[in-house]
Amino acid sequence: MHNVVISGTGLYTPANSISNDELVESFNAFVQQFNADNAAAIAKGEVEALVESSSAFIERASGIKSRFVVDKDGILDPKRMTPRIAERSNEQWGILCEMAIGAAQEALARAGKTAADIDGVIVACSHLQRAYPAVAIEVQAALGIQGFGYDMNVACSSATFGLQAATNAVQLGQARAILMVNPEICTGHLNFRDRDSHFIFGDACTAVIVERADLASSAHQFDIVSTKLITQFSNNIRNNFGFLNRAAQEGVGASDKLFVQEGRKVFKEVCPMVAELIASHLAENQLNVSDIKRFWLHQANLNMNLLIARKLLGRDAEPGEAPVILDSYANTSSAGSVIALHKHQDDLPSGALGVLSSFGAGYSIGSVILRKR
Fold it and tell me: Among residues 81, 87, 150, 297, which one has the fewest Cβ atoms lying within 10 Å of its Cβ?
């Protein structure tokens, strides 16, 4: 059994950003046109009038101020409100592969590794571009990595589940090092005409190098002390888009073919589950919550993160204890907690302990205990 470390992280950020004000302007233009087009039916009570949104509402509900996106114009067009992403030929690298390459190159550089040092690729994300061939095998080919690759989807927890899979492979000697990447085009499955959720998601890609400790040489190493995962079935976060939709044409275009959630139920049910999993994980490793210097939590909602930290610590978290990146990135699904790790790790002293945690649809929750080398 080999000791395992994270030796490098990377981040790909799209060039385009949308502020709350821009998003609200587009949404309200759609609402005004809808209400005007349906004025007679609304007056008769046959159609419910839509309600405008505001930047203040979005920030109060989520803590989000802006988000990065792969396409801005298509989202902000009130007549479209969907990103415009052109199809590519089968001979071109796909857009998820392109994002993964950008994040992977930074992770490899921070780890001091090349493609020749990597034996496997795991693409772990919520929104895979296609059923097959696996996006991971495409990334593997694009980077010139020998070995194997596969895709996995555990929604917003995909990164922590991917980290456990990568850790197991390296521990058991099945690979010297694994590249785990999380390319997320969340805006592709978001209903920008839904007032309660149109502001939630952004796009990004993260990458992590997991390797044998005795082969690691970078200045950015974290021992992977332990991993713990849990799932519990729930319909409160769901997306029913899939290849079987064409076999049931009556459902094509229905709202459940995009992201839908029961937000209040998710908040009420998931927060205590996350706090309990992390607390039990620490106890199993003879650690106290007070031993943890940093919590890199899934970046879905500021109020959720504040509550989880409060449940764990018994008080409000200090600014550096549970860093927030969702104000500028929004919810990037599986990439969020890794963005927090990537941007808030270099200041930690040797020996400092941290917890990387994700939570989302499934329900699925992951906890990874890390120790700075």
Answer: 87
3-state secondary structure (DSSP) of residue 43: helix
Distances in whole angstroms, Cα of residue 82 to Cα of each of 16, 34, 78, 286 = 14, 17, 9, 48
Question: Residue 40 — very low, low, confident or very high, per pLDDT cuts 50/70/90?
Answer: very high
CB 27 within 8 A of CB 53: yes
DSSP state of 257: G
In the prediction, which pLDDT does 321 show? 96
The pLDDT confidence band at residue 309, using thresholds 50, 70 and 90, is very high
DSSP state of 238: E
| pLDDT (0 to 100) of residue 137 | 98
**Backbone phi, psi, residue 77, to 5°:** -75, 110
Q: Are the beta carbons of 156 and 333 closer than 8 angstroms? A: yes
- C-alpha span between 196 and 207 (Å, rounded): 30
Answer for the pair 17, 69: CB distance below 8 angstroms, yes or no.
yes
For 146, counting Cβ atoms within 10 Å of its Cβ (0-12 exposed, 13-18 middle, 19+ buried), the class is: exposed
pLDDT value at 250 more than 90: no
Burial class (CB in 10 A: 0-12, 13-18, 19+), 315: exposed
Residue pair 217/82 in contact by the 8 Å Cβ criterion = no
- Report residue 35: phi and psi, to 5°: -65, -35
Q: What is the rounded CA–CA span in Å between residue 288 and residue 281?
A: 10
How many Å from the N-terminal Cα to the C-terminal Cα in the chain?
19
Report the C-alpha gap between 318 and 314 in whole angstroms.
Answer: 12
Distance CA 8, CA 220 (A): 6
Which active-site residues does the annotation give?
156
Q: Give the SS3 label for residue 324.
A: coil
